Amino acid sequence: MSGTDASRSITLENHLPLDSGQVLLHATIAYETYGDLDADKGNAVLICHALTGDQYVASNHPITGKPGWWERMVGPGKPIDTNKFHVICANVIGSCMGSTGPASLADDGEPYALRFPVITIRDMARCLVALVDALGIDRLHTVVGGSMGGMQALSLAANWPDRAARILAIATAARHSAQNIAFHEVGRQAIMADPNWDDGNYYGGQTPDAGLAVARMAAHITYLSETGLTDKFGRRLQDRNTKSFGIDADFQVVSYLRYQGSGFTQRFDANSYLYITRAMDYFDLAEEHGGRLGDAFSGHEMGKGARFCLISFDSDWLYPTAESRHVVHALNSVGAPVSFVELSAPFGHDSFLLEVPSLDRVVEGFLNG
Amino acid sequence: MVEAGTHLRPDLEVIARQIETGSRVFDIGCGDGQLLSELEAHRNIDARGMEIDAELVERCVARGLSVVQGDANADLADYPDGAFDYAILSQTLQTAERPDRMLDELLRVGRTAFVSFPNFAHWRTRAALMFGGRMPVTRALPVSWYETQNIHHVTVQDFNELLIRKGVKVESRWFFSGENEIGATGANWRAEFALFKLSR
Fold first, then answer.
1. Which residues of chain B have pLDDT under 70?
2. A170 lies within 8 A of chain B by CB
3. Residue-wise over B70-105: b if at least 16 C-beta within 10 A, else e?
4. B184 and B14 in contact (C-beta within 8 Å)?
5. CATH 1.10.1740.110 at A180-277, yes or no
6. Number of domains within chain B
7. pLDDT of B4
């Protein structure tokens, strides 16, 4: 490994083998850390980010200037207490915040674009393990993740069972459902229908912002609940008293979605969106292990491996409680120690990122228990 | 042995004493995890629980216990045969949709089962019904008929008969009045609570 501490990234010396059979050359992994690592390196907590997340879990985003995406959970005195834990969060490969992805330059000096190999959730986990290796950490105190982050946490547990003492998977699933795949396809088609997309070769020119914004808008709806949208916006009009009888952003919800869409294009690469959504679609932990999910966790039989905690939210229809229960069932079938709770929160899938005090208590309790 | 002064409910106190060190225990309807944390802390026991109430599960997880939120009426089916040395169902049988089937499940997932329940034939309960003409509200059954979760009231005698019909082996029985353990004589009259240790 060759470390470049200044930029908080590592570049893997060896080629990274991928599930597709291809290899990734000299992959760079960008990451952030918070809190001090104990001398025995026993207090490292790895946080895995979601589809459009990044390594800035508890520090300002360098492009948007906004606070870290999980600052309410991670920091001094927070449920994941950086006075106590050394928190590591890395940008997944395929993404666009410093880790190798389709916008990175290939050996010929040109961006990979669609020449970037298709990656999987297990490939992401493989990179995380390589990072943890490089940091000299044998066994993580905890791996935490919500949504796609939870998938990485489960994949890491299944494939590298001795690398973590605790696995905390929130609002996630062990496989992508047909509905999940279908929603992702809408987003991908929106990007690919943007003339600026140009088969992915838009680097250095006009970027497919309109398509990427639509993808984000469609996805954003799936992260919320109907009640959440109704409470926040209802049918209220935006900056006007009557309908315009045009196709302007008459409704507050429309204005909000447009804002979400355009804000997203400033910080995210459209090709990364294609690759990462595809990685999620391919995710099926049981399929990777001969079709039986319990077999995926055979390294955790009878409490030999990690302790698990799964959390779902009653208003999350994207990764509903049944998906978490499926994982709990599999873990029980091998006798792995597992906790599970469905928390009540009105915010849909996004509940894991928002103000849910019961989530704070469970996370803190599990990490310290 | 559980040290004195841990303030476990008397039936749980007996269960804690009976459980062998180093075994695998499953407490169904584990509440806030009092028994489980006692067993884990002092007895090197692999303790697991199931609880339907999210807030109680939350408290269990915060104590470092492995507890799954679930409905014992449906979710025991998720556990493999003989997964545990002991399966515990304390003060929960009378709330089951089908206590007979739950008993089967208990003895499927656990080699040994502990079952405790309030005895509906206790003299106080009988008196309340006989002389008051109303559904009893006693210290053992403190909740009114319209609010109680107890949908299958059971007596010591009823339970004995169910065990005979199912061919379940009774290893031991304990009876309680208030905080005190009492003898088996006239238990169907005298016991407010009963605890059975069962196996197939």
1. 1-6
2. no
3. bebeebbebbeeebbbbbbbbbbbbbbeebeebbeb
4. no
5. yes
6. 1
7. 45
Tell me if B99 is assigned to some domain: yes
E strands in A241-358: 307-313, 338-343
Domain A2-176+284-368, classified CATH 3.40.50.1820, yes or no? yes
- Facing residue for A362 by CB, picked from B46, B61, B70: B61
Residue B20 lies inside a defined structural domain of this protein: yes
Q: Which residues does chain A have with pLDDT short of 70?
A: 1-7, 303
CA distance A180 to chain B (A): 25
pLDDT of residue A6: 37
Please write down the long-range contacts of A97-100, taking CB distance under 8 Å and 24 or more positions apart.
A97/A30, A97/A54, A97/A55, A97/A56, A98/A7, A98/A9, A98/A28, A98/A30, A98/A55, A99/A9, A99/A27, A99/A28, A99/A29, A99/A30, A99/A127, A100/A24, A100/A26, A100/A27, A100/A28, A100/A29
pTM tops 0.90, yes or no: yes
Q: How far apart are CA A309 and CA A144, in angstroms?
A: 10
| Chain B residues with CB-CB distance to A369 below 8 A | 61-65
Residue B145, amino acid: W
- What's residue B3's pLDDT? 46
Which residues constitute the domain of residue B86?
A: 10-119+152-199
The secondary structure element, H or E, covering residue A3 is: strand A2-4
A115 in contact with B at a CB cutoff of 8 Å?
no
User: Is B82 a domain residue?
Assistant: yes
Say yes or no for a CB contact (<8 Å) between B63 and A307: no
Distance CA A85, CA A50 (A): 21
Domain ranges (residues) in chain A: 2-176+284-368, 180-277
Q: Which of A54, A194, A316, A350 is catalytic?
A: A316
**Is the alpha carbon torsion for A99, A103, A106, A108 positive or negative?**
negative
Report which residue type is found at A154: L
The 10s digit of each residue's pLDDT in A96-137 is: 999 999 999 999 999 999 999 999 999 999 999 999 999 999
Chain B interface mutation, best of A340, A342, A343, A363, highest count of B Cβ atoms under 10 Å? A340
B60 Cβ under 8 Å from any chain A Cβ: yes
pLDDT at A114: 97
Question: Under an 8 A CB cutoff, do B61 and A365 touch?
Answer: yes
* CATH number of the domain that residue B26 is part of: 3.40.50.150
Distances in Å between the Cα of B82 and the Cα atoms of A288, A359, B77, B127 are 28, 33, 12, 42
Residue B164 included in any domain: yes
Q: Which residue, among B184, B183, B185, B178, has the nearest Cα to B193 in the 3D structure?
A: B178
Rounded Cα distance, B96 and B100, in Å: 9
- pLDDT at res. B6: 58
The answer for B 23-42 residues in CB contact with A (under 8 A) is 24
